[in-house]
Amino acid sequence: MKNDQQQNTDDLTHKLPEAENPYQLSKLKLTKVEKWAAGVPAVMAAVSDLIEDKTVLRGGKALFKMNQMGGFDCSSCAWPDPDDDRSPLGEYCENGAKALAEEATTKKVTAAFFKENSVYSLSQLDDYQIGKMGRLTEPMYLPVGGTHYQPISWNDAFAKIASHLNALESPNEAAFYTSGRTSNEASFLYQLFAKEFGTNNMPDCSNMCHETSGTALKTTIGIGKGTVTLEDFYDTDLIIIIGQNPGTNAPRMLSALEKGKKNGAKIIAVNPLPEAGLMGFHNPQAIKGIIGSGGKLTDLFLPIKINGDMALLKAIELLLIEMEKKNPGQVFDHEFIKDKTTGFENFQKQFENLNLDHLAFLSGVSKDLIIEAAEMIAFKKRIIICWGMGLTQQPNGVDMIREIVNILLIKGSIGKPGAGVCPVRGHSNVQGNRTMMIDEKPTNEQLDRLQAYFGFNPPRDHGYDVVGTIKAIHEEKVKVMFCMGGNFLSAAPDTTYTAEAFRKLKLLVCVSTKLNRGHLIHGKESLILPTLSRSDMDIVNNEIQIISTENSMGVVQSSKGVLQPISDQFLNETQIVCRMAIATLGEKSVINWPLYHDSYDAVRDAIENCIPGFENYNVRVREKGGFYLPNAPRDGQFKAKESANRASFTLTEIPDNELEADEYMMATTRTHDQFNTTIYGMDDRYRGIKNERRVIFMNQKDIDKAGFKAGDKVDLFNYNDGIERIAPLFLIVSYQIPERNTVTYFPETNVLVSVNNVVKESNMPASKYVKIKVKKHDPAIYEKIKRM
Ligand SMILES: Nc1nc2c(c(=O)[nH]1)N[C@H]1C(S)=C(S)[C@@H](COP(=O)(O)OP(=O)(O)OC[C@H]3O[C@@H](n4cnc5c(=O)[nH]c(N)nc54)[C@H](O)[C@@H]3O)O[C@H]1N2
Ligand SMILES: Nc1nc2c(c(=O)[nH]1)N[C@H]1C(S)=C(S)[C@@H](COP(=O)(O)OP(=O)(O)OC[C@H]3O[C@@H](n4cnc5c(=O)[nH]c(N)nc54)[C@H](O)[C@@H]3O)O[C@H]1N2
Ligand SMILES: [Mo]
């Protein structure tokens, strides 16, 4: 029998909406679809963001320090800063400014705020409203059966975590999530603590982001990272951008593309949507940008069908093989193939059975455009291929990235200047987190080094990744979940299923800067621990500290916050880990946690001793621009397998993307006005969508065929694993997108992404490959959702 209190909690939590399910929509405004990114509107948007938030003085001061030598690293994306000439205006972009405004806000979420607002009432708000509440300022606790978070002292919070962790039957009943903003220093200590506690359950945002790239690259070239540097972009012949939206998600990349183009490079873009940032760019930091000149970026745009990329890549290869036959030795780099690779013969053989017309049909791109692309590639030697979530979140994403490597290998276009692979990372330190061993599958070599230096036996069994963690919580194999940043609930797939799991947790701990939905769909007990953001001054022992991060191109650099923290109750993430470790492990620990608590330099010394490439860390991190980590493939040294010092060609398959007559393929994507689950505003400006996020982009022919009209209200359904998943109330927008393809925004449609719809080998949610049905909106739909 449940007691009354328990009964009440169950009733209450079941009323909490796990995702936004609004009964009405705002008035959607369609504005002009832009053909180029940045320029005057971008600068205006950035500045007005800061003004609206009344943080203009704090924010303005910080902007000039953003990504400057000796300043702080922008927390928005992982694109590198130029090694030499940084803009005197600050090396920032519109979306960097928005990220800064978000964290520089002086609005506070205090104990009084939580007293006034129950968890239930907060959960009724939409994600935009939740995010605008302000910065979290003090540790908060939600007791069993509680309706409101209440204040708790740091000591009591750590005691609670320790008692929960120590009560578990096995350390593997805990999971430790990391989002990608955590510094190298805090990440290193965090994984060290998890391992000393006894588990490798370290799911991280990479498991939803670039795990696919890491898996493909490790098994083909021997390192799970990109091989190019910024300099390579400045002096190359061709840049191919597949499944990535740089104008929104890595805007500083546009400056590099512009510079490359100026030096003669061509650009090919592959995307179902003609994204503004791909098509053209007006540099807001150059005077000509402000007066409105600037230029076309993409020379050839290939409007690919969702998941048509494999067919496209093979079609291009087929054409390259034919061109090589006609021009022996001019298209392929035979010397490179012979000296540096394995598997070429088998690779080439498959093309005997492939047919260009069929491949073109599967890709959705016309044969003429594919021929044009192949001609642009054939006689160029220095090629860079970039990609983003459009590839990594596809079920066969690992294979598609291997196919990208195949193309570069036949061209010998990897491991030399102006050429190589460039997975464009997401979070500003997601790559550094992995280097610091935040990984559910650490290698024995890594663990041996930790063991030798610290003298404890780290666990060797692999732990749970994101999808594994969700399922394990559901099955009550994981009972305590600790989140270092992020918004696991909203970022994860299958929101209803994930929420169901979270409600089973005995304890959920979130180390956060801002309130998010992940705090409202809670465990039986929950803690929110407030921390510093990247731009905040981190003062330890009366000294302003530096932390360090690694960008998308393997440069480790320092970052120093400049803003006065708005609460005196913040602990930095390093201190939080150390105090959790001291409270949990006590005398049992062999690690000097108090030392690391007080000294980032001491943490860096430990990193230097445990991770290759960090020699002389404390000195080099203080040098102008930081330092490059070793990257063997960048220097032409490959190791696809232990057995051979070579890169490997891979045989891959072309997927069958059949849809039922009333089905559509849906890719979930970001608007121009959000950072993952943080909604900055309601203006997806480049795509011309204003005021409303619950929209579905459809081809006009599909709209007509289904008997809909643009502006109609519809409900969206997914039926993976025989389960009905519903996302209610969306507006149809007629858009330039291939037939039978649709695009919606995440996190609103994460309810439709089955936890079992994953990428082969990397086990990432395949959130850009969701089969959906679209039906006229039925007001009775909410009754159905409530019963689920
Ligand atoms: N301002 C801002 N910056 C960000 C983020 C943010 O949310 N806001 N997020 C950060 C993070 S964590 C990440 S991982 C990156 C993400 O940055 P991106 O990789 O750019 O991510 P998305 O916007 O999800 O999707 C990229 C593109 O994939 C295309 N696409 C969809 N399906 C397919 C397909 O089948 N084939 C091809 N070729 N393309 C397809 C979409 O049209 C879209 O243009 O950005 C980082 N930077
Ligand atoms: N359907 C669909 N789902 C997706 C994606 C998609 O394209 N489609 N993209 C996936 C990708 S690429 C990613 S990376 C994940 C993102 O998943 P997450 O990284 O988990 O999500 P974010 O929205 O970036 O996290 C935002 C929260 O982080 C906290 N925060 C911000 N800065 C800091 C900090 O410095 N320290 C701490 N401790 N907390 C901080 C704030 O409280 C904020 O609310 O989402 C994934 N989910
Ligand atoms: Mo990401």
Automatic annotation (TrEMBL):
This is Molybdopterin-dependent oxidoreductase alpha subunit. Residues 665-772 form the Molybdopterin dinucleotide-binding domain. The keyword Metal-binding applies. Pfam families: Molybdopterin, Molydop_binding. Belongs to the prokaryotic molybdopterin-containing oxidoreductase family. PANTHER family: PROTEIN YDEP, RESPIRATORY NITRATE REDUCTASE. InterPro entries: Asp_de-COase-like_dom_sf, MopB_CT_YdeP, MoPterin_dinucl-bd_dom, Mopterin_OxRdtase, Mopterin_OxRdtse_a_bac, Prok_molybdopt-oxidoreductase, YdeP_MopB. Residues 135-513 form the Molybdopterin oxidoreductase domain. Keywords: 4Fe-4S, Iron, Iron-sulfur, Metal-binding, Molybdenum, Oxidoreductase. GO terms for molecular function: 4 iron, 4 sulfur cluster binding; formate dehydrogenase (NAD+) activity; molybdenum ion binding; molybdopterin cofactor binding. One of its GO terms (biological process) is cellular respiration. Its cofactor is Mo-bis(molybdopterin guanine dinucleotide); [4Fe-4S] cluster. It comes from the Bacteria. GO terms for cellular component: membrane.
